[in-house]
Amino acid sequence: PEDMLPELDTHIETGLRTFSELLASPALILLGRPGSGKSTELDMARKSGLLDLESTHLIYRQAKAFEGSAYELLAEVDAKAASGKGVRLVLDGADELLMENAKFLNSLEAGLEERKRNGNLSSLQLIITCRAAEWPEGMLAHLWPQAQFIVARLCQLDWKSANDFVSKHLGDQTQAFWDEVNALKIHFLAIWPHSLAGLVESFRANNGRLPSTLFELVQQTARRRCDVNHGETDQERRERLHERDVPLARSYRLAS
Questions:
Q1: Measured between alpha carbons, how far is residue 191 from residues 41, 179, 208 in Å?
Q2: I need a surface site. Which of 38, 52, 132, 166 has the fewest CB within 10 A?
Q3: Residues 202-249 pLDDT 10s
Q4: pTM score, two decimals?
Q5: Within 10 Å of residue 205's Cβ, how many Cβ atoms?
Q6: What distances in angstroms separate CA 217 from CA 111, 170, 210, one per listed residue?
Q7: From CA 190, how far away is CA 208, in angstroms rounded?
Q8: Per-residue model confidence as pLDDT tens digits over 88-101
Q9: Which tens digit of pLDDT belongs to each residue from 43-75?
Q10: Rounded Cα–Cα distance for residues 108 and 122 (Å)
């Protein structure tokens, strides 16, 4: 901000771009820390229709539900491309795939290299999300010109964005929410989309209050998110979990 750097009169290029601007890139790798909102950003884009193009087939795969190989995924791309339309391939959560198959991205890269040699890469747009610490540096970068291969990191929320989000969901209770955040000194949880959404959710569940301590907040969040009947933030939870609650001690460990 200008008021923080009064001695500088040069323009500072921040490199900040919105997600919709990044979608114009032929290849986009979206990185971020756990819980920073990578999957949430993609899911919101899908639900709003931002990922849909009339002249393009959309293939959207979440790693936690994907059981195929890179070869099978690219075969699906080829089948869609055979119609003459372009293909937008979205792979959410590459880090989870790497835990199951450390060579998955290598196989994907090899398959894309083959398609590039055959002149079949130009019809594909690739979007991948991954935890920043798990993304192999330089992976896939040589397949596109530098300007067309974008590796972006999710930024922390600024004050206006965070407050707009809270205001949208809590309305006239917005100031009361921030008073609770200040009292608990948990601003570090309010700067990321996913954890801020969790705080708003907890505020609602407690009738306009947050738990009195950070420990109680973690406990309450763990119990709510491990409850198979809770689907406000994850509509697919019931399909993934057994029809019983996780033991409390284990849920606290998971939440921490």
A1: 15, 15, 20
A2: 52
A3: 898 888 999 989 888 888 777 766 655 544 445 555 554 444 555 555
A4: 0.65
A5: 16
A6: 46, 19, 7
A7: 16
A8: 999 999 998 888 88
A9: 878 888 888 888 899 999 998 888 889 999 999
A10: 16
Q: Cα–Cα distance between 194 and 199 in angstroms, integer?
A: 9
CA dist., res. 76 & res. 94, Å (int): 18
CB 118 within 8 A of CB 78: no
Residue 209's SS3 state is coil
Q: Give the C-alpha separation, 191 to 156, whole Å.
A: 5
For strand 86-92 and strand 56-62, is the pairing parallel, antiparallel, or unpaired? parallel
Q: What angle do CA 203, 206, 210 make, to 5 degrees?
A: 50
Q: Which residues pair with 57 in a beta bridge?
A: 87
Three-state DSSP state, 217: helix
DSSP-H helix ranges across the chain: 19-22, 38-47, 70-81, 94-100, 104-117, 159-170, 174-184, 193-205, 214-225, 237-240, 248-255
Q: Say what angle helices 214-225 and 248-255 make with each other, to 10 degrees.
A: 110
Contact 205, 212 (CB under 8 A): no
Q: Which residues contact 57 (CB under 8 A, 6 or more apart)?
A: 80, 81, 83, 85, 86, 87, 88
Gap between the Cα atoms of 231 and 253, Å rounded: 21
Task: Report the alpha-carbon distance of residue 40 to residue 134 in Å, rounded.
Answer: 19
Query: Please, what is the Cα angle at 235 between 203 and 215, to 5 degrees?
Result: 35
24 residue type, one letter: A
